[in-house]
Amino acid sequence: MLKKYIKTSIIVLILTAIAAIFMLPVVYIVSTAFKPLSELFLYPPRFFVQNPTLQNFNDFMQAADISIVPFSRYLFNSFIVTVFGVAIALFLSSTCAYAFSKMEFPGKKWLFDMVVISLMFAPEAVVITRFLIISQLGIVNTYFGHILPQVAVPVGVFLMKQFMDQIPISLCESAKLEGATDFDVFWRIILPNVMPAVGTVMIIVFQGVWGDTTTSALFMTDESMRTLPYFVSTLTAGLNATIARQGAAAAAGLIMFLPNFLIFAVMQKSMIQTMVNSGIK
Amino acid sequence: MKIETRNKLVGLAFVGLWFVGFLLFWAFPLIFSLYMSFNDVTIQTDRLLFEFAGLEQYQRALFMDAEIPNVFLLFTASSLIVVPVIVVFALIMAILLNQKFPGRGLARAVFFLPVVLTSGNLINELTNHEQGSLNFLQSATVTNLVTALPDTWALAVGNVLNSFLMVLWYSGVQMLLLIAGMQSINPSVYEAAKIDGANDWASLWLITLPGIAPFIFIAVIYTVVDQFTAPFNPIIDVIIRHFLSPQTGYGYASAIAWLYFGIILLILGFVTLIFRKPLGLK
After folding, report:
1. For B28, which of A238, A258, B208, B267 is 20 to 30 Å away at the CA?
2. pLDDT value at residue B131
3. Tell me, what's the pLDDT at B161?
């Protein structure tokens, strides 16, 4: 009993120490957002804020007020693009992974090899061609231009397929004998069993779509079609790089981070718990 | 219709939609960039002009541009250290987080947090402010140790130490994968082993690790891919710079991208070779 107690305390101790290091960036983002200008430009930079102020948020609001397009428009665009982008990407990559994992069709091996290969290619290297395709499709300055390049995520298919491979095919076959359709098997058996993968992919895709500035910068020429991260990135770029804007950017950093944090807080629970005692193996 | 034909069609239907997007935004751009890498590409007002150049771009990148081989070598060397460090760290953390202890839920949440943090903007913000390096690296012992190594490796090791915190932050997804893997092992196997007299250490090596081998493999692949396509990656910087530069242009940038891609492919081939046995692949 005592041995077990000691073991538990050692684990808790080690984890607390490492957790403290892990939390540093979050603390830093929050603390920076409240730093007055004098502390933002301090060298060497201080980690914690000394005289917290809300001035940065004021500056951010002012910057948002005088932007060409109303701030709410950027927010609305980001919202639409993120919600649809994530939903479509999740649905398509999980159905696709299901087919790769549990079905037979011509060219399967060859197609999956292509998915794995494209996984290794940095998206930056194909951005020019993507632009050509977007303009050929005539979806410049539409929401499709934001969403379509982001929904075919190779990493999503790859991760989900690896998880689905762990589910025995006999489970699907017996369900089919009972009269389940292919979609039933996918929706009721496969998906609930790979929720950790769904959660992980969701977080990865969400981050990619929510924080992305390339689609706004390259595929949109109409300012009213651009998204929030693009607006934030313009705060400190070019002619806008005044000293007051640095404060606004620090506040924007926190504002951009909050949705990431929220989606994480919601998803992490289902990510971890559904795999427990699912009894499929 | 025969049942097999029907099954094949259903399979294709499930893949279909995703694949259209994949062809448009991944496969075609990739093949197109391969084509560009064999050409001199000049930009006209309304179109791109291609002039076949054979392997010229590749020769230029490998033998004439002093920067490219250097950046490649340095980055590959530091990745060869970073990837095992990340995976082993994630594995240790996953084992710890899979134990039963008070506050486990909270601890897991804290350790997956890096996953939401590693999105480009935030990481850039942090590295700009020097939060990615640790002060102990400036201490005398570490400096001596590093300077004793040959140059390329010394630089590589230095980079790794410098990005120590970054290493920790890039292990979130891998932890998740490994924990999921551990939970797919049936608990009754452990109970049976315990009854047969196995201690925790033995069951870790004989049950847990072999059981999660496929997940370790995925974690390694994910880490390699993640490292090599990360936004702060120096090689991607070079590629983007050449894409935007009027002197060198798309052709040259594509050639560098494909060389880079070749290196990643080699490394992944190597990883697959290592894992061939534990995974029972042929």
Report:
1. B267
2. 41
3. 60
> Are residues A280 and B102, on separate chains, in Cβ contact within 8 Å?
no
Residues B20 and B146 in one domain: no
Instruction: Name the residue range of residue B33's domain.
Output: 3-57
B100 shares a domain with B226: yes
Both B137 and B96 in one domain: the answer is: yes
The number of folded domains in chain B is 2
pLDDT of amino acid A80: 93
pLDDT of A85 reads 93
* C-beta atoms of B180 and A163 within 8 A: yes
B100-133 pLDDT per residue, tens? 777 777 777 777 776 666 554 555 555 544 444 4
Nearest CA in chain A to B100: A8
Distance CA A201, CA B128 (A): 28
pTM score = 0.79
State whether B108 and B246 are in the same domain. yes
The tens digit of pLDDT for each residue in A219-262 reads 888 888 888 888 887 776 655 556 667 778 778 878 888 888 88
Tell whether B146 and B12 lie within a shared domain.
no
Cβ A125–B239 below 8 Å, yes or no?
Answer: yes
Q: Check A152 against B22: CB less than 8 A apart.
A: yes
Distance in angstroms (rounded) separating the CA atoms of residues B191 and B185: 12
Looking at the structure, tell me whether residues B172 and B70 fall in a common domain.
yes
Inter-chain CB pairs, A–B, below 8 Å? 244
